Amino acid sequence: MPGNMFKLTATILTLLKTPLLPSRHSTMQGLGLDYVPWALDSTETLLPMFFPIYPIDLTNKNFLADTQRLAVGPQYLKTFPGQEEYLEFLLTTIMNCTDCLQGKEKIAVTVWWFRFQRLLIVLDKESRLKISSGFKKKLKSSMKQLLKSEEHRNNIIYYQEFALFEYQSGNVESAVKILTTTLSTIATNNPPLTEMQRCEICFLFRTLTELYLDTASGDGKKNALKCLVALASDKPVNSHFELTQDLLDETKLKFKHVTLQMLGNEMPTLMSVDHFLPNLITDWIICNGWFLYLTSGAISCGTFLEDILSTIEAATWQKEILFEFYVAVLFRNCMENPGAGMFKLLDDALHRAIEVFPNNLFLLSVLAKELTINCSMGQPWWKINRLLMKTGHAIPTLVLIIMANQHSYEIREKWVDTITGREMTEDPSQVHRMISLFRRVTSSEMCTRRCGLAWRLYLQYLHAHFDLSVCRNAYYAAVEQCPWLKSLYIDAAIYIPAELAQIQDLLIEKQLRLHITPEELDILRN
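Above: the chain sequence. Below: its structure as tokens.
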């Protein structure tokens, strides 16, 4: 069947802890990765929550604060011997996989390779992992080497990905120059544009627009608007013109005409491989949406998107992208105009989007970020609990647990008793709420009963709040449900150190062998 080689490649890479980038529900569904709770034993699957795909700030230091603590070897999150070697192995494996693929499947996996390296830079900036400056130079050098090769030097998508890598590395001017030069090259060399080139041009304009919107400079919005006008008017990206009202009105009509023309055609069914590549319909609609946002405001943009979403009945990848963009626009507006009553609209859009696409990690990251804002704005906890638990999927349930942990971190960090002036700690009601959540997550009717990461989070919480006897009972329940999980046996040294002999007997009884990495040996020795 077509696409089987790509599915096999995706399965191999995810098993090696290379996260889907970005991680969307429809993509996971297409690749058969949406119902695999037993495979979620470490945090790498959730790393796309830190991968920026829209110009909004979702930095959330208390979300998944124990990223490194929950890593399971072989891993690349903790700074231990073999960390960079494992990263090199992963990157080499991805490129070896591309040698077995052809056409757009090869391009999609190469794009994944670019994005994974960009994610490493983002995680390093947020101090969620540490990579040396020498390794960063090696990443950049390998990308440049690929772009210089005869096979790849004319691939526009790779230049766009390299520009975004440069942007995350702090080289904003270089990123802008790469995108504008690439756009100018297409316009100069190919006057009669093919459908693919039109798609790539729209994708580049969208990327450049969002890059301008993400910068802190005062001219960011003006430059973004000029980009959108140039796209709609077929002007060169570097052309000089004034943003007059007549020009903006003309651009608005052009966007509307082309959008209606596109929506008049049947929405194509896409394969999973297409989810990694530019898509003309969604990219054009997003550019149209940004234009409305910058000229008429978030409400106008939201009305435009609601009209389009209402015409797409099936839960397609295109609908998921447009829901993402809708949420991103509303969130950005809430941050720029706090107190304008937009949080209710954001909550409604998030709720509807997550109900249809529960495994979308961007939507879940916005929900987690919203919870941190003043610890009060946004949806009440019971609504979030009900929304994520009823999905029947492991990923939103795990995110719910981590969000509850995040709330506990923020109470300890920010809340102060107004009478005594002392820092607040978790009260018994919060502890009972967490225990109730964990018991429900690990109950027999939940798919997360076989999820190793859920049990590890449960044990970590019990160890911090209760005595060893409570930890012991939960530990043996975890081993019974997830006997294959190596990290559980290593965690025994932390949670029930007095019973290591019994754990060894358990391993012998189950005929299990542990292949230990150097960092895991350090844990056992200590």
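The CA atoms of residues 404 and 434 lie 7 Å apart.
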